Amino acid sequence: MVIALFILMVAVFLIAEYFFFSKKISPNAQAVPRVHHPVTTSTIERYFHPGHSWVLVRSSKPVVVGVNDFSQRFIGRLDGIELPGEGSFLRQGEAMVTLKHGDKSLTQVAPVSGVVVEVNNHLKSNPSTVNDSPLERGWIAKISPRDLTLELRNLLRGVIADRWQESVRTHLVHWFSPQLGTVMQDGGGVVDNVSDLVDSKEWRLLVNDFFPHCGSTVHNNNS
User: What is the mean pLDDT of the chain?
Assistant: First the structure.
């Protein structure tokens, strides 16, 4: 329900923005060619969950799932990962994979429901592949989906997904407003290893703010 309301809010914003700007155009204005800006989500078949996971839908099953670029930058360079079990059943919005960096971890949720038919076992010995290629080689698992058509309605894609990801980056800048230069690269990208910028208490607050669908832990390396 929360996901559906979020998507509706984004859609209303885009419609309002369209009518606002269309009213400012003079009726005598000369028509200009429409410019089609590239969609940075790389393919219209890739859908994003508000918990920062994605699903790549192809013409045939199964679907491929993973985590997005924001997630890997947020947690940092991975030195460990807990993958779902092959044959296990995942539910949309519930735990799918846990990313580990130093004493911190971040649990990511499944974008869709279904049975895990294959796991990217390469990640067990090379978890940082998620950092190097989160949308391609760093995929997490392949799932035989259940109720895919229905559940895709809860996800974001295309221009709406781009706007959402941009708003997340803006929110991150505001969260770190006392130290603006630490979280953004030249050109507007998020820096790597955001988790290294905060202590354990701040980490939990940060995860609860940006990953309300997920979970986090901080491990005591002295135990």
Answer: 79
